[in-house]
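Troubleshooting: if your tokenizer reports a length mismatch, compare your output against this known-good record of 276 residues.
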Amino acid sequence: MTDLLAALLLGIIEGITEFLPISSTGHLLIAERWLGHRSDLFNIAIQAGAILAVVLIYRERLVQLADSFIHPARAQTVFGQAPRDYAWKLAAAFGVTAVLGVIVKKLGFELPENVEPIAWALVIGAAWMVLAEYFAARRAQALGERSNITWTVAILVGVAQVLAGVFPGTSRSAATIFVALLFGTTNRAAATEFAFLVGIPTMFAATGYELIDVTREGGLAGEDWGQLAIAFTASALTAFVAVKWLLRYIQTHTFTVFAIYRVLLGGALLVFVPVR
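Known-good structure output:
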């Protein structure tokens, strides 16, 4: 397989899996076993492509939130909430992630990036998803559907992002969406949008931090910019399609199909893929 084709495939994998609740990190670590390990700059590039896609999808919402601080009188609600209140909750979730992320980074706490913990994270995450949707459905039946993002949910979403970063295979989108569902937001669309929006500054910050590190260490030298361009473009395009599809899908479907996929993939990894 040529390096350009491998770069294209890795970009597609990142784009499809970054915002679906199935773990992009887990899929990329597994894919690199066959397609070859890539540089830190390459991984930054494909993640940036996925972020760009979500920014484009939510550009109107981002403009609305920004405009609510400039023209508060004409601001429309976001899932029944004042947009400035919603924006502050996004900021709180990001702030929690930033503070805890720095602490985790300083402590040097991370799991080895091999197959076994990824497989178990996929399986355990599937159980978490099913339970969260079950209890959210019961709460909706008892109290009615809730689209409001509470301060508790915002803080817990911030914590969930850090845990997803520490445990490869967890999935940042899965962790944040299902924390929101489990702790008060029964509307799947509302939980998903908040998770994706808070992911924008989080992923931009993480990508920028990593880019600074790579630049300081001379990681820009000798990079194949053609491969980076192909991978970035593939990631952006496939992420755009994947997120658009997901947002339509969850209007009429639960997340059960993703939980089943995670169990099947996790089980297959434990059975068929060598631990090292």
